[in-house]
C-alpha cells in the first residue's frame, strides 16, 4: 500500500509540474501587442513652426507638418501627400504677410526671390517705398531695423539777416522702415542694420515731403519706442497746411519753412 501511494503521489507531482511549465511557456510566448495611435480622417498640413513677420526670408525649419482634419483642408493649403518637399522648395521665399506659429502656410502669402518684385509685394496698397541716404550717426547708431517705426528729422541752415542759423524739423512722424541697406550684422551681441540708405514706407504725399527735405539738408532717423510706434496713431497732414498738423519752427521769431507731418 505504501509503495502504491508513493507512486500515485509521484505521478501527481509530476503532472502538476508539467502543467505549470506548459502554462508558463504559453504566457511567455504570447506576442507583444503594440499600440499605434493614428487619427482617423486626418492628413499632414504644412504650418508655421515659428512666428513669421512680414518681409521675413523663411527657411525650411520655419515650417513643420501637422495633422489636420481632412474635412478642414481648404484650397490653398499645402499637404504632405501633394507636396512632400514643400519645406525645402519654399526655403528662401519672402513673407508677403505675417504668420503665427501653427498657422497653415499658403503659397499665395509667400514670394520667391527668383520671381522678383519682393519690395513691391510687401508694400500695402496705396503706399510707396522711397530711400534716403543715412549714416550710422544719423540712424540711431545702426540699431534701426526693418519694421521699426521712426520720425524723419531734417537739419539745415536758414539765413536770418546776415547770419545762417542751424534749424531742425520733424518732417515726418511714425513711418515704417522697410529696409536698411542690404544686410544685418551683430554688434555687442545685438543685431544692427548696415547700409548707406534707409527705405521707408510712405504715402505719395509723404514721399513728396521727403524728397523736398532731402534737397534742403541732412536727414536723420529718430527711432520710436514700441510703446508709441502704433501704425496710424497720428493724423496725416498736407504739405504746407498749417491747419492740419504741420509744424512751423521759429528761430529768433522768424518762421522756417512749413512741412506736413504724419
TrEMBL record:
Residues 43-111 form the SAF domain. Pfam families: RcpC (PF16976), SAF (PF08666). InterPro entries: Pilus_assmbl_Flp-typ_CpaB (IPR017592), RcpC_dom (IPR031571), SAF (IPR013974). It comes from the Bacteria. NCBIfam families: pilus_cpaB (TIGR03177). This is Flp pilus assembly protein CpaB. It comes from Methyloceanibacter superfactus.
